[in-house]
Amino acid sequence: MASNPEIKIAILGAGPGGLTLASLLSSNPSPNVTINYTIFDLRPRPSPDQLSLPSGSLDLHAESGLLALSACNLTTQFQALKQECSEASIIADAKGTVHWSDEGFGERPEVARNKLTELLLSGVPDERVRWGCKVVGVVEDTASESTEAKESGRRRWIVTYKSQHPSNTKSESESISEESFDLIIGSDGAHSRIRSLLTSIQPHYSSISCLTLTIPQISTSYPHLSTTIGTGSFVAMGHRKAVMSQRGAGDSARIYLMLRTESESFFQDSGISNLCSSPEKLKEKLLGDEQLFGSSNWGPGIRDLIAAGCDAEAEAIALDSKSGNAKKTYEREGITARPLYMLPTDFTWTHKKGLTLLGDAAHLMTPFAGEGVNCAMLDALELSKAITSSPTQSGATDEEILEVIDGKIEEYEKKMWERVHPIQEETLRNLHMMMDDVDAPKGFVDWMKGMIEAAMAGEGKGGERS
Fold first, then answer.
1. Among 14, 112, 160, 312, fewest CB within 10 Å belongs to which?
2. Distance CA 274, CA 55 (A)
3. Do both 32 and 179 map to the same domain?
4. Bridge-partner residues for 238, per DSSP?
5. Over the stretch 412-462, which tens digit does the pLDDT of each residue have?
């Protein structure tokens, strides 16, 4: 019996979108085509210790993220993970006065980001992922279109990569490898290499800069703050800023300081970037500067939360230094201070055979609607269907199958844009409501009430919570 034709696919990036796609291709194979895929990711494979570290939480939606998990046959395993994070939500003003609280509605369970990664990895065979591989080039092999090349099985795209693994002792020239593929999927994030092959449009600064802190064991270390921020998500907003927190694994809390500033280099220009390795000095800067989180605008409870985040980071640095454990320092993310980027809300590209995008590479947006990972996972589900929708008749040639898949992928792209553009616009509206409203959080709370009332009345779906 003749074997099925083989389609070789490269997936760039082992984030939630790329891993979801890989899991789907493994658990739902095409009946007529052998799908031979490889994931490339610059990072080393995350260790169990890394995956157990505190991380932000993600709320998965029934119509997208949860739907994709179900198609991966991972729903049962997911049920055990969602217990660590609560759907509860609290919205306050800059002084700490609560304007909204709820316990969630049971439709959008929260899961720690690291735990979701671990779950998705469980559905991907180890040999399918090349960890520690830096892709340095992707070029079209124009010679592959010749009749002779097609008959010899020559692929359309060439990926050049080199191993970044610490055990790699080869010289740089020796470590560079090439491999050819029929299809390259860019799930490679904000600054996607594959996107640059499809369009000259690049992400632009969103006007939001974000500083991240982590407090482990917050209920034990800071019980009063644990009560303030609740068991799920918390946000205090005002003065073109927001202080957000998410509860996570290990009784942790991730703290996000969002600042609306027109300067992409604000953290560098203000000196904050240089203070991330000195949490005590960073605390003085954040709380002592009235243009940041000074006492004239921000209440004591919110300022205490920021102070606790800085103190927890200082304690972690001290423990790392005392133990001399470089690996522990490497695994712990520490303080980050970054500008946030976005793509235009109407972003599209001209279809090109053998290339496509998913997730942030396709529709990068800020986190103000909680939709990023859900969109990426639904992208993966729809793209997997496009890839496995090969001709049903036996005896189809590789080229005929690739033509069918290419047509399905072009349909996937058009449907994705129709689905995602309204979400991108909603995310931008939420950004303005939260970061520009002089009466914040009034406008955002009123909007949430309206969405929930409409949902309860059967007039529409519930609003997206950030």
1. 160
2. 23
3. yes
4. 241
5. 999 999 999 999 999 999 999 999 998 999 999 998 888 777 766 764 444
Residues 6 or more apart in contact with residue 91 via CB below 8 angstroms: 98, 99, 100, 101, 234, 235, 236, 237, 441, 444, 445, 448
Pick 172 or 247 by higher pLDDT. Answer: 247
117 closest CA partner among 185, 69, 184: 69
Can you tell me the distance from the alpha carbon of 424 to that of 431, in angstroms, rounded to the nearest whole number? Answer: 11
Q: What is the pLDDT of residues 113-146, one digit of tens each?
A: 889 999 999 999 999 999 999 999 999 987 766 5
The larger pLDDT score, comparing residue 328 to residue 164, is at 164
Whether 101 is covered by a domain: the verdict is no
Domain boundary among 280, 314, 341: 341
- As separate numbers, helices (DSSP H) first and strands (DSSP E) second, the chain gives 19, 17
346-353 long-range Cβ contacts below 8 angstroms, 24+ apart = 346/421, 346/424, 347/201, 347/417, 347/424, 348/413, 348/417, 349/195, 349/198, 349/199, 349/201, 349/413, 350/198, 350/199, 351/409, 351/410, 351/413, 352/197, 352/198, 353/156, 353/406
Is 209 in contact with 337 (CB distance < 8 Å)? yes
Q: Scan for tokens 């002592």, then name that residue.
A: 288
Domain boundary among 289, 307, 341: 341
Q: 127: buried, middle or exposed (CB in 10 Å: 19+, 13-18, 0-12)?
A: exposed
* Residue 361, amino acid: A
The C-alpha atoms of residue 264 and residue 266 are separated, in whole angstroms, by 6
- How far is the C-alpha of 52 from the C-alpha of 69, rounded, in Å? 21
Between CA 338 and CA 103, with CA 52 as vertex, the angle to 5 degrees is 80
Cβ atoms of 461 and 455 closer than 8 Å:
yes
DSSP 386: H
Measured CA to CA, the distance from residue 465 to residue 463 in angstroms comes to: 6
Residue 451, in any domain of the structure: yes
How far is 152 from 156, CA to CA, in rounded Å?
Answer: 12
The DSSP symbol for 143 reads G
Omega before residue 29 within 30° of 0, cis: no
Q: What are phi and psi of 257, to 5 degrees?
A: -100, 110
- Domain count of the fold of the chain: 2
Among candidates 306, 303, 301, 328, which has minimal Cα distance to 317? 328
Strand partners, 208: 260
Predicted confidence (pLDDT) per residue in 313-359, tens digit: 999 998 877 766 544 433 567 899 999 999 999 999 999 999 999 99
Beta-bridge mates of residue 183: 9
- Residue written as tokens 């899991």? 23
- Which of 258, 218, 216, 219 lies closest to 235, judged by CA? 258
* Cβ proximity of 427 and 441 under 8 Å: no
